[in-house]
Automatic annotation (TrEMBL):
InterPro entries linked to this entry: Bact_OuterMem_StrucFunc, OmpA-like, OmpA-like_sf
OmpA-like domain mapped to chain residues: 91-223
PANTHER family: LIPOPROTEIN YIAD-RELATED (PTHR30329:SF21), STATOR ELEMENT OF FLAGELLAR MOTOR COMPLEX (PTHR30329)
Organism of derivation: Salirhabdus euzebyi
Signal sequence annotation: none
TM regions (residue ranges): 20-43
Alphabetically ordered keywords of this record: Membrane, Transmembrane, Transmembrane helix
Taxonomic path: Bacteria, Bacillati, Bacillota, Bacilli, Bacillales
CDD domains: OmpA_C-like
Keyword Membrane: yes
Full protein name: Outer membrane protein OmpA-like peptidoglycan-associated protein
Length: 236
C-alpha cells in the first residue's frame, strides 16, 4: 500500500515540477531571441550610420573636385576677357569648341592660316592659367579632341579626327608657333585624341552634323586615390 502511494506521490511531484521548468526554458529562449534582435538592430544602425558617413565623405570629395574645376574655368574666362580674346568656354566642362569647317578644308587635316592665328591668341593664355604655379599640379592632361559627323565609315572618321587633333598639337609645339610661358610643361601634358563620330552633338534628338564636326580643347584634373575610388563607386 505504501509503495502504491509512493508511486502516485512521486508521479505527481514530477508533473508539478514540469510546468515551472518549461516556463523557465521558454523565458530563456525568448530572452535569447530578444538579445539577438537587439544585436541585429544595433548592427544595422551602425551600418546605416557608417553608410551615411561614407556618402557624406564622398559628397565632400565631389564638391571639392567640382569646386576646384569651376574655379579654374572662372580663371580662364577672366584671363581671356582681360586680354580681349573672344572665346566661348563651356561653364560646366571648361571645354572650348572650334568648328572644324573653319579649321580645315573638307576631308583635310592641314590647319587653315586663320585658325593658326586663333591658336596663337588662345593657347598662350590657356597655358598661363592651367599651368601656372598654382594650378599645374592639379592638371593631369590638356586634351585636343577631334570629332566628326556620322557621314562616312567609323574607321575613316576615326583616322581623320585623330589626324586633325594631331596636326593641332604638332603646330602648338612647333618652332613655327613660337615660345610662350609654360610651353615646356604643356609638352608633357598635352594629348591628341580622335573621337570619330562617337560623341555627336544632338539637337532635339537628331544629330547636328555641322556642330558635330568640331575640335575641342579641354583639361582633365589629376585625382588622388580617394577621388578615383569615389568616381569608380559612382560608375558602379
Amino acid at each position: 500500500m505504501n509503495s502504491k502511494y509512493d508511486r502516485l506521490f512521486k508521479t505527481g511531484t514530477k508533473e508539478g515540477n514540469f510546468w515551472p521548468a518549461f516556463t523557465d526554458i521558454l523565458a530563456t529562449i525568448l530572452l535569447v531571441i530578444l538579445l539577438i534582435l537587439i544585436t541585429l538592430m544595433f548592427t544595422k544602425q551602425q551600418e546605416i550610420e557608417g553608410k551615411e558617413k561614407e556618402v557624406q565623405e564622398q559628397q565632400e570629395i565631389i564638391d571639392s573636385l567640382v569646386g576646384y574645376e569651376r574655379g579654374v574655368i572662372d580663371q580662364l574666362a577672366k584671363a581671356f576677357q582681360e586680354e580681349g580674346v573672344d572665346v566661348e568656354i563651356d561653364k560646366e566642362s571648361g571645354s572650348i569648341k572650334f568648328d572644324s569647317d573653319l579649321l580645315f578644308d573638307y576631308d583635310q587635316a592641314g590647319l587653315k592660316p586663320e585658325f593658326k592665328q586663333q591658336l596663337q591668341q588662345i593657347i598662350p593664355i590657356y597655358a598661363s592659367v592651367l599651368l601656372n604655379d598654382e594650378n599645374r599640379g592639379a592638371i593631369d592632361q590638356i586634351l585636343i579632341e577631334g570629332h566628326t559627323d556620322s557621314d562616312g565609315t567609323y574607321m575613316y572618321n576615326l583616322e581623320l579626327s585623330q589626324d586633325r587633333a594631331f596636326s593641332i598639337v604638332s603646330y602648338i609645339l612647333s618652332n613655327e608657333f613660337g615660345d610662350f610661358a609654360n610651353k615646356d610643361i604643356l609638352r608633357t601634358k598635352i594629348s591628341a585624341i580622335g573621337r570619330s563620330e562617337s560623341i555627336p552633338i544632338l539637337v532635339d534628338g537628331t544629330e547636328d552634323k555641322d556642330k558635330s564636326r568640331r575640335v575641342e580643347l579641354k583639361f582633365r584634373l589629376s585625382m588622388n586615390s580617394e577621388m578615383e575610388k569615389v568616381l569608380t563607386d559612382l560608375d558602379n
